[in-house]
TrEMBL record:
Residues 29-165 form the Thioredoxin domain. It holds the Pfam family Thioredoxin. This is Thioredoxin domain-containing protein. InterPro entries: Thioredoxin-like_sf (IPR036249), Thioredoxin_domain (IPR013766), Thioredoxin_H-type-like (IPR050620). Signal peptide: none annotated. Coiled coil: none annotated. It comes from the Eukaryota.
Amino acid sequence: MRNAHLGFPCILSPSNEHASFYGVVVVVAVKYQGAVAVILTTSDSGKVYPGVQFFPRNVHRITSMQSWEAKLSQANKDGKTVVANFSASWSHPCRDIMPTYFELANKYSFLVFLTVDADELAELCTSWNINATPTFYFLKDGRQLDKFVGADKLELKKKVAAVADSATKAHN
């Protein structure tokens, strides 16, 4: 048993060595205090690379164009601001900034936080001109409020705080 960076327990191989599963993809999802842990492996090389991602309940993982459109439509209908994170699972900067992104999602629960894997939804990334990851878009009523490219945690916090402040003022 090993603790993940967010303090949730997760199970990895006892030696943290790579285990082998040939021709098999193993996916384990565990719900813990409102967060979902997803442990993925790969079958490309037959090696298992234990990786854990915790998605707070306010972070929605976008897996299709339909889910993207549905979340944007619902946010527009509800008058909510969207923070969209275009990332790649293999990218160290994306992985490094993810805990900060999750922290912000918990802090600003009145915003809608979306996560898009650039490799899974290349068509969506092309339509949004994603040339680097992570890229964050801030959207309201179908229009872009701001954009941030990079993994500077302080800059992301500033940008999210600014759109949150703007959203709060708009509702008052």
